[in-house]
Known about the structure:
This protein has 93 residues and is mainly α. It contains two helices and no strands. The longest helix has 63 residues, at 2-64.
Amino acid sequence: MKKVKLLRNIFLIIFIVWIIMLLKQEMNINQYKNEIEVLASKIETLEDELNQNKQDLKQKEENNQSLEYIEQVAREKLGMYLQNERVYIDSNR
């Protein structure tokens, strides 16, 4: 009789420990799922930013290749002007 009671208690303890382990694993799984969702959201945000930056760079590249931009840089940064163009300098500056 004592052996049966002892075995029953041992099985009960093993069952309780097993249940506790399962609950802890379930909690860990839920925590990892939440972390995955947060990281997936961050990845999506960064991909959106990357795409926006790519579009901005493409637009800048197109602008840099335009004749108007090239002329503007030549005038402002290189001090170049068109042939037969008169340049007036404001002496009040």
